[in-house]
Structure formats: structure tokens, C-alpha cells
Amino acid sequence: MNEIEMARQRKAAEVRAGRRHKGLSVFRLKVIGAVFMALSVASTTLVPLLFGEPSADNMTGLTVAVVCEIASWCAVPIYAWLLFDGWKHTGNRVRYGVELFIVASLAGFPYDKIMTGHWFDAHTHNPVWGLFFAYVVLVCIDWIRRTYSGAPRWLLAIAVIIAGVLWNLIMRVGVSQRVMYTGAVTLAFVLIFYFLAPRENTMMFTAGLLGAVMCITPGIGVAFLHYRNEELGYKHSWTKWVFYALYPAMLLIGALL
């Protein structure tokens, strides 16, 4: 290989590195997801304080609340991808699942207070449970794929997926406006990312199509994922714990308001 060709390859590598650096790291995706997540909390807590209780007699408050809630659905595919990416890179999958379980449990009380007026209500569950159930399904399917082959592999995988969907529907995980079933949709996105990960364009197109069908805005969330750069982007190791605590903290503030 001559020097000119080597120089070209180095230049190409630098360009690719520059593109990755300019894209959206895991940290930036989490910040974007947190902003959309905050809109969901604000739609049921802050908006009524600023614009009055949303109702047919208060179209301003109703409109702002609905717009905030619909915009917050952009976060669904972003968090689904972050879950898949976390599962792929974690060094301890049991601990990762336990962390999700703890966050979902802590978020449950203020979420119930905001949604039902009671600190505990078994008829509704916060969207983090959707991430937890999706993670359980993901771990089970991956184990099935590595353990079985042929028809048993697919039959067991289908059974696990159906169980995951039913968990989300029966427990009403993240049901919003009786339109967006966040838990079930999160599971669908995670499965798309898992099965189509080797085919980037097909994966993004399929996820975008699902997002478009589910009230448009999740498709916008998929567009953010298109610009990810696969870098972590953390400056401090404790940053991830801040994001774990962020949603329960937002809900608690909203519940107190």
C-alpha cells in the first residue's frame, strides 16, 4: 500500500470519527428523552397550575396539556433504544434488571398520585414498568435463541412476546389518553431493535413506520435515533445514576404540586 492510499484511509477514518463525534451520544439521547419525559409530567401537573384545569370550558389549558402529552411520546422509541443498548453493553444483566425494577417501583407512588389522586393504585402503572417488562422479554428471547433451535425456538419466543404484551395491557402500563399504550409500544420498539439490529436501514424504517402509525410523534423520536453516534458521552461515571433518579424525582415534584 502506497503512502497516498494510506493517507486517504487515515483521512476517511478521521471523517468517520468526526461524524460520530458530531452525532447524538447516549448522554445526548438521554437528555432529549428526559425533556420529552418532562413534558408528560408537566401536562398533568404544571399545565393545570399555569393555564387552569383542562376541560371543554378551558380550551387553552386543554390544548396545551394535549400538545405536551402528545409531544412526550417522542421519548418512547428513544428509551426503547437506550434499553436495548444498555442490555447489549451491560456487564451484569441481572443487576441492570434489578435497577430498572427499583426505578419503576420508586416512580410508582408519585405516578399513581398524579394519575389517580392516590399514592397507590393497582389499576395503573408507570411507563418504567414497560421498560422492565421489555427487558425481561429481551433477556428471555435471547436465552431461547441461544438454547433452542427450529420450531421450539420460535414457539417459545412467540409465547414470551405474547406474555409481555399481556403484562402491559392487563396492568395498563403507561396508558395515555386511552390512545397510547406506552408499555406495549415500548416492547414493540425493543423487539424491532433486537431482531433487526444487523440491518440498520431496515431497522430504522420499520421503527419509523411503527412510530408513524402510533400517533406520528414516536416516529419523530426514531428520527433522533437515526443520528446516534454509538458513543457513551458521559463525563462522569455517576451521570447514569442521575438519569435513573430523574423520572421519579420529576413525578414526586409533580405529585407535590
UniProtKB/TrEMBL annotation:
Superkingdom, natural source: Bacteria
Keyword Repeat on entry: no
Claim: Lipoprotein is one of the keywords in the record: no
Protein name: ABC transporter permease
TM region positions: 29-51, 63-84, 96-115, 127-145, 154-173, 179-197, 204-226, 238-256
Keyword vocabulary terms for this entry: Membrane, Transmembrane, Transmembrane helix
